[in-house]
Each structure stands twice: as C-alpha cells, then as structure tokens.
C-alpha cells in the first residue's frame, strides 16, 4: 500500500470513530488494503456493512474511552478535532487522521476544493458540471455526493476531483488542494467549534498549505475573507458582484465577465441565469474561474450557467398555491442565509424561522426583517423566542405565529398569514435537530405539506 500521512497502515492497530457515510467508505477501503480496523460509534443501533471485516466494535456514550490504545485513529467529520479525548490520544502517541486526509495523500489527480459558510454545495456542483460539459473526466465528492475514497480507484493523472469541504473536514488538513475556492466567511457551527476564530482558521486550511503555484479563488466582497487570506502564498483570483476585480470574474451592468489574464471575456447576461438571488451570481462567478483554471472552455461554462437549477433545500421553488409562492431554503441554518433569502424577493414575505441552537446572533437578521417587506413570521423551536426578542427590539410590527409544533402546523400558520402575491420561505436561520433528523428531513416535510395545500 502507498505510504500516507499516517504512515504504513498495514499492521497498525486502527480505529474508525463514527460509521456514517465516510466511516463506511473508509472501512471498505481499509479492508481492501488488508487492514481490519475496529469501529467506535456513539450510537447504539449502528450495524456494520454486510461482509465488512472488523476487529472489534464499541458503541454507546463511552465510545471514546479507550482510543489511546490504538496506533491510528480516523475521526468522523462530526467529531471535533479538538475533542479532549482526541487531544489526549494524540499526546499519548496516537496518530489522528480522517477520510479526507487519507484521500488527499493518495489522490493522483488535480483537486479543486470548495468551502465557505454558504454556497459551497452549489458552487462545487457548478464547477463539476462545467468541467464535465468540457468533455473532461470529473468527480464530485466530499461533503456533497460521494465519499472520495469510493472513487479513488477510478482516478488518473488526467482526472479532476471537485470536493466540497466543511470546516469539520478541513480542521486538521495539512495539505491544500491545487485550486482552493472560498465562497464567503461568516460565523457558523459554534455548537462544534469553540470560537468564531477557530471556525475561520479551519476554513483557511483549504489554502494555507498552497505554494506559489496554487490558485486561490476568493470573494472580493467579503472583508473578513480578504483580511484573512492576505498573507497566503498562492496566486489569488477574485470574484465580485459589486466591482471589477482582476484577475477574476465580476458582474457589472447586468452581465458577467471574466478577466484571468488581462483579456476581458463576457460570460453571459444575468437574465440568462436560472438560479435566484445575487448570492448565486457570486457562486457562478467563482465556479467559472475554477472551471477555467481546470481547463473548461467558456462555451461549456455558458451552457451550464443557462441550464443549472438550484440544489434541493437551497431557496428552491416548490410551487404556487392559492396565489402564494412557496420556497424551500431548509439548508439555511444561519441568520446570514435567511438575510440572503429576504434580499432575493421584493414582494411581501412570510418567513418560517427557528430551530435548534447554533449560538448565532439574530440581531442583524431582525433589523433586516423590519426593513424587508416581511408581512409575517412563524417562529418555532429553541431559537424562536430569541428571534422574537430581537424582532421586538428592532421594532417589528408585522404578524407573528408562535404556536406551531409540527411542519404541518408551520405551513398552515404561514398560509394563514400570507396573501395572494406573497412569498412563503422556509429559511430557519437555525439547525434542525430536535424536531427533525436534519435539514433534509425538515425540507422534505415542508415540501410534502406545501404540496398538500393543492
């Protein structure tokens, strides 16, 4: 087996912490290399894949108790890298790694890494489609799609890998992709990261280890990102929806342009874009740079832009019922995404807001709601009372519903507040845990209840 960041794995005592999608992919890969790891998981109802070879299984709340006995531990993205058990194990001489670190060490192909607080899934998908449309072999994985070790055997030096990377996956990464793209930086996952600074530093690992040959694609409209990336060694390309940026891509006078090497090329008119919202214009600009740097042609890029539709649960139009348009933005788990949703519509709006805690501040969201033609709000979950308190401070005078305890009740409440011509948006600005399994479950239930309004 090829040497990796964790050394020669064969013959080592190995544990996989977490048997989710990445853990199962890693287990299969290690078995193929002749390794028989142990599996630890917090959940008691985890079943090993059929045919998998496992040395031992430890399940339950105490699943991290004896990890210091291993040579190598692979953590799942959901387990914070700075968890005390991992820190103690590392001090005891255990090598801490991950699915993502192992893939980076073994991948023979060009890697385009995409991260950001929001927009990374859409942007990564756009890059992937643009490269495919240019008749090149491309693979999409990471935080979206397929765990990348699943397609490692299909890769060659001529392949291109597009990875959506979360802060959880990036936190201990010590190799940067050849092309790194950051859509934006705001505070998120403070239920996982101890501070906003820790979160930002994790994100910046995507370009921290690039040399002067590396390419970084960055948001020129994001002041925090501009300051954070100032000392990085890579060649920087900028994208902006507000000003001309060179080298890079920008929107001006209703059109999108690229200027990577001093020659301005028109990409398309904004009117040709199917995706809603100025934030998606930024995503498209960023994706077009990455795709061009990877060898995609401008014709393929234009074709994808004109046909690409939004991903599920990302401000996706569900339909018009009783004269009201309904949009599913369940992926919007922080206040910044709800603000973006607000700014995407001029018509009166009814918002469904709230969920489980991520320690976000709702003060700015409340101020935006007061000034954004919002007819009503449906407030739910743990964060509902906090959002309401900020709305009252901001002088909100619109309609409000506090009593919904299921998705059907949320949709019914929103429907009762809305009038024909309005827009109802599920953009919770909060996590989904407690009432729903995850943001997908929340969005799926929303779509189901909206379609039932027919």
UniProtKB/TrEMBL annotation:
Residues of the Mur ligase central domain: 114-291
Catalytic activity: UDP-N-acetyl-alpha-D-muramoyl-L-alanine + D-glutamate + ATP = UDP-N-acetyl-alpha-D-muramoyl-L-alanyl-D-glutamate + ADP + phosphate + H(+)
Pathway where this protein functions: Cell wall biogenesis; peptidoglycan biosynthesis
Molecular function per GO: ATP binding; UDP-N-acetylmuramoylalanine-D-glutamate ligase activity
GO terms under cellular component: cytoplasm
Chain residues that bind ATP: 116-122
Keyword flag Glycoprotein: no
UniProt keyword annotations, A-Z: ATP-binding, Cell cycle, Cell division, Cell shape, Cell wall biogenesis/degradation, Cytoplasm, Ligase, Nucleotide-binding, Peptidoglycan synthesis
An annotated GO BP: regulation of cell shape
Matches recorded under InterPro entries: Mur-like_cat_sf, Mur_ligase_C, Mur_ligase_C_dom_sf, Mur_ligase_cen, MurD
Annotated EC: 6.3.2.9
Protein origin, superkingdom: Bacteria
Enzyme class: ligase
Entry keyword annotation includes Lipid metabolism: no
Cellular location(s): Cytoplasm
One Pfam family it belongs to: Mur_ligase_M
Chain ranges of the Mur ligase C-terminal domain: 313-429
NCBIfam families: murD (TIGR01087)
Sequence similarity: Belongs to the MurCDEF family.
Record's function text: Cell wall formation. Catalyzes the addition of glutamate to the nucleotide precursor UDP-N-acetylmuramoyl-L-alanine (UMA).
Protein name, per record: UDP-N-acetylmuramoylalanine--D-glutamate ligase
Biological source species: Candidatus Doudnabacteria bacterium RIFCSPHIGHO2_01_FULL_50_11
Lineage: Bacteria, Candidatus Doudnaibacteriota
